[in-house]
Amino acid sequence: MDKKIHLEIIWWTITAIVIVLVMFPIWSEVGTDFRYHNSNIMAVFIFMVYTRLLFVLRHTYIAKNSLMKIIFVIMSIPLFIYFMDRINEFQTFIDDNGDTSLLTQYSDRVANLTKYIRYEYLFFAVAALITVAMMPFRMILSLWRTRNRGTV
Fold first, then answer.
1. Torsion angle, CA of 32/37/43/45, rounded to 10 degrees?
2. How far apart are CA 86 and CA 80, in angstroms?
3. How many CB atoms lie within 10 A of CB 60?
4. Tally of structural domains, the chain
5. CA 63 – CA 89 distance, rounded (Å)
6. Which domain range does residue 29 map to?
């Protein structure tokens, strides 16, 4: 197999493993009944994928694909707005209702889990926001390099 195929398989496997490891404490206690479940998974996913593209773009299939780079630049705008909104909503919810309100129906047995959820969600959501903000600059730089120098 091609080197790029191996790297893609490895990266997608690592991404899936990280998502499972990060979400496992939440899934083991409350299942998917968590209010920010989908946006949490999306934040971890976007952070992993965009970080990989920011640092090892030349080893991916989109390295020479100008159309995909333009799509990443355009998609960064709604993703940035989405994560800003989700972080704001999450933080407002925590400020108004407190940490324990995240999992009210589970009460005492998940006191430590609420702290984990808060820190984990904020970490990955802010990290995803930062990588989404950096992506257009990286893709534009790569487009310029591809056009003018023939490199990525």
1. 20
2. 10
3. 18
4. 1
5. 35
6. 3-148
